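Below is the data:
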Amino acid sequence: MRSEEVQNKEKVIFTTTKPDASTHDCVIAVRKDYAVTYQNGDHSHFEEGQQVTLYSLLDSTLTIEVEVFRIRKMHDVIIFKTIGDTCFEFFIDYDRHRYLPNSCHLLGVNKETRTPEWKEGTLFIPKPQDRGQSCVTFEGEPGSAVMDDNGMLYGFISVKRRNEITLTNYYNMCLPQEDDEVSSKTSQEQLSVKKEICLTRFHDD
């Protein structure tokens, strides 16, 4: 059963597709000024500097104007930045000082009905010889957020090809540093979550 803290994260999900479109994607607000999504497939046409309108998943009348701030093709990540004084009222935070859990929650968008889609599953760190490889699974769509039981973000699904899924963790998004992130020394807890992680065995709730 999901906690209220986790359930409330539906407010951080947006789409680049209009509410009346025939299919929908998934964008996650990760700070008051930034959102992220995948860079492949139907998102491969985005270019840095391009202006985009994001539509709230829960409130179809709420739109946020953003620009493509950065594209990281190596990790299949697009970073959007809000334009002007606009910002995201709700966003999903991440915990800088936690080790990866076994269980987690996945939140994405049903492409056909444009409704929140939840799944439950597990995360694991692959063996050294498997580093860089994706985990085989048939569940989870690109853009879906992966969080712990407290609603803290670990990353999002960035690639789904031939039934293989890759999870890009928060640090590989390479967002601009916040004031409290600037430090000459990285804690061991931070180093632990910089390891490449994969997503597997998700199932419908």
About this structure: Residues 128-138, 179-200 have pLDDT under 50 and may be disordered.
